[in-house]
Amino acid sequence: xxxxxxxxxxxxxxxxxxxxxxxxxxxxxxxxxxxxxxxxxxxxxxxxxxxxxxxxxxxxxxxxxxxxxxxxxxxxxxxxxxxxxxxxxxxxxxxxxxxxxxxxxxxxxxxxxxxxxxxxxxxxxxxxxxxxxxxxxxxxxxxxxxxxxxxxxxxxxxxxxxxxxxxxxxxxxxxxxxxxxxxxxxxxxxxxxxxxxxxxxxxxxxxxxxxxxxxxxxxxxxxxxxxxxxxxxxxxxxxxxxxxxxxxxxxxxxxxxxxxxxxxxxxxxxxxxxxxxxxxxxxxxxxxxxxxxxxxxxxxxxxxxxxxxxxxxxxxxxxxxxxxxxxxxxxxxxxxxxxxxxxxxxxxxxxxxxxxxxxxxxxxxxxxxxxxxxxxxxxxxxxxxxxxxxxxxxxxxxxxxxxxxxxxxxxxxxxxxxxxxxxxxxxxxxxxxxxxxxxxxxxxxxxxxxxxxxxxxxxxxxxxxxxxxxxxxxxxxxxxxxxxxxxxxxxxxxxxxxxxxxxxxxxxxxxxxxxxxxxxxxxxxxxxxxxxxxxxxxxxxxxxxxxxxxxxxxxxxxxxxxxxxxxxxxxxxxxxxxxxxxxxxxxxxxxxxxxxxxxxxxxxxxxxxxxxxxxxxxxxxxxxxxxxxxxxxxxxxxxxxxxxxxxxxxxxxxxxxxxxxxxxxxxxxxxxxxxxxxxxxxxxxxxxxxxxxxxxxxxxxxxxxxxxxxxxxxxxxxxxxxxxxxxxxxxxxxxxxxxxxxxxxxxxxxxxxxxxxxxxxxxxxxxxxxxxxxxxxxxxxxxxxxxxxxxxxxxxxxxxxxxxxxxxxxxxxxxxxxxxxxxxxxxxxxxxxxxxxxxxxxxxxxxxxxxxxxxxxxxxxxxxxxxxxxxxxxxxxxxxxxxxxxxxxxxxxxxxxxxxx
Amino acid sequence: xxxxxxxxxxxxxxxxxxxxxxxxxxxxxxxxxxxxxxxxxxxxxxxxxxxxxxxxxxxxxxxxxxxxxxxxxxxxxxxxxxxxxxxxxxx
Lengths: 901, 91
Prior knowledge:
The complex is a heterodimer.
Chain A: H1 23-32, E1 37-41, H2 48-57, E2 66-72, H3 80-92, H4 100-107, H5 114-126, E3 131-137, H6 145-156, E4 162-168, H7 176-181, E5 185-189, H8 190-193, H9 197-207, H10 214-224, H11 228-239, H12 244-252, H13 258-269, H14 272-281, H15 289-296, H16 301-310, E6 315-317, E7 325-327, H17 329-342, H18 347-360, H19 364-373, H20 377-386, H21 394-405, H22 409-413, H23 416-428, H24 432-446, H25 459-463, H26 465-479, H27 483-496, H28 503-518, H29 522-538, H30 542-549, H31 552-559, H32 562-578, H33 587-600, H34 604-618, H35 624-640, H36 644-657, H37 669-680, H38 683-692, H39 703-723, H40 726-745, H41 749-765, H42 769-783, H43 790-793, H44 797-808, H45 813-829, H46 840-850, H47 855-862, H48 866-880, H49 885-894
Parallel strand pairs in A: 1-4, 1-5, 2-3, 3-4
Antiparallel strand pairs in A: 6-7
Chain B: E1 15-22, H1 27-32, E2 37-40, E3 45-52, H2 55-67, E4 72-78, E5 85-89
Antiparallel strand pairs in B: 1-3, 1-4, 2-3, 4-5
């Protein structure tokens, strides 16, 4: 469940017709586009929003053109995930394609760091053809350090296209003094915003249609000190007053604070119906006719709102349809104070009606908020219990937990279903002990025996509650790394729900699979995932089947079941394809997995084709985990093709996109990079990696660290080759021996093949060919039936020499010759003349790009359509793994496709 | 200057604070500053006096002052020491 976006928060307030033109301020804002930040900082009622929207409406007269994105903030935006969601939504109103990636990341259970997402967003903005002014209005309402940090990050890395305007009642926590000193800050403060005498006169007599003498105007000016809200209220009072002069005298002679004096004056001039409408609806953040009717119990709310807007009664429209409005915050504050003073006992009932209306109209968060204001905790608990299914992403969990914190403890404890949801929320935020207490509370209600009737609004949840509790306990045990505990509780779920495709049952199975996997029992994990995905296919849940099936490429090749994995994925792909076009984007992960598997068998052409197909599908949608995993798969392809630099670049990109998942990270990115460094002889960096990870040859071995330990052995052999440290190679050979034993114990034939092959190379490095051939022969005989090829080919020339030696001595000659042929193929795939990488036409387009021509100019010069040039450019970027024109040109120079100058 | 003690170890919390703002607040506004006594001074200012639970509550009060657009004149902590010590001046 994602956060619904309220369009009203993104609405650019239209310039008011009856506004005083203030060219001196508009000019300062125009000039302000050259600074890093435009800060409009003044107390309430100084016309901050008005002047900025006035200026934004004229954005088209600016050169270069800018478009305005608007975000009205509120207290809820203090949560960084929600702030980012709205930030992207605001930007999308002026650049539709920006931020899709970030929204995808925000929907994943494990969101990447805020700065990673902001960096992605800024790169996309930097590619926009037009400028964007982003207005953050009411910034003081956020009051959250993570959001201040995010805004500071944005401002420190602003691309030239983006201009930021912050309107606020208090200075934000940003390095303002530093920017001020460097001339990077444009400020409009209270002193700038106050109406000058002439502006005040123009406002009162023209905008508000009064006819006051210079003396009266001056008296009002002095009394309100140019405070716009005060002048507007004064004007409204005078409009309804028979004796304007008398009013001005009384007001200017009063000691009463301007605001509440005038609001009461204005209210007294309103008819009774309007007055009570204003007081009763003042507790609503946003207003529409139907909601006002529900709260006031009257009709004609819509007409009333329109009338208030016409009469300039501090009602701000939030859309173009005249549907949603809000009160000016300052006005609402005074109205609320008056309502509290005049009708204190009515407030709870008003909040309850608002809550009911929101619940009926599908806006549960608002319903909960008003239920809590009403202090109707029973009703709030009903709502919060119904909202349990929203506990999916971390940001939603945070919101739900905040609600639960507002409920009296005993109320939660009396409701088993609510207690269990609470336990899930606590588990999701890492509070394992508190979660256990809630589960124990819930169980008490389920024990048979005389007791109170159980309170729950969700009977279906109540029926499967025991299973739900057991899933929560399994999850908790999994978080604690308690394997037997996880299996025990997951088994309990299966006993309670013996059949059917109950979601709790599936969760338990998935937890079991993950636990077995993480603890190194790959055989059991494999069985769980294979059975699970087959049941899902049978039940027609293709997408769930895909997500389960894509773990097979991580498990089965390690177990030596390469063919089985390929068959399983190919079979599922047939099912998906049979369902017709368009293929679901999730199939991107299936192609990615298949690409990795056929690469293991040495089929580079098929691997490249699968990865390309995967990319086409995946880019249509946001699949954050797929995205980094695709880069890893592509990196392995480059490695086999003998392009370590390209592989490293892709791994760096994968690292930038990396998102943790609940699955074990059995092949960490840092280790993949260290392997490549080892083959390149970059021993210092590789040793540094091992030191950072705290790895040593004497460590206890486990499946989860197997990949890192094999990598360590590779690094030590590389150290021996470059520095001739005898100790290093002995250590490596000892470690490999232990690793081989552990892999055989765990039935990991795939791991054993790699370890044996590398053992052979370690002996070969010492010039001991006869010791090298024995493990090589074992590796070949294990690899042959399943067709493992990559594991040999990616070892490069030393392995080719060793295989030639083996074939000449009649050791597994057929296998060795087949592998040597694969070496030649891999060499062909990596173009000997890199020029062949690009077609003639592509080289021609690239030369023009390097000369600095735009796509349009290139199209004109080569007599091609703009579309064709763009297609060529895309293909060039893809082949060169570049993300920009400059990068493509630099890569082409590196590869000798273009001259180096 | 009295010696500064951190809030955690300071036995003086909750503390009594006096907030001076410009202008007389109307009766409705008294509800706005719940729990504080409100005195209208002859010089046209209003004094809000009362116990404040902790720093967070104090800043919450100051935010209310900010949101009403009232001019903040001074904030004083009233303690058993030799008279109030000014801690913040409005502009």
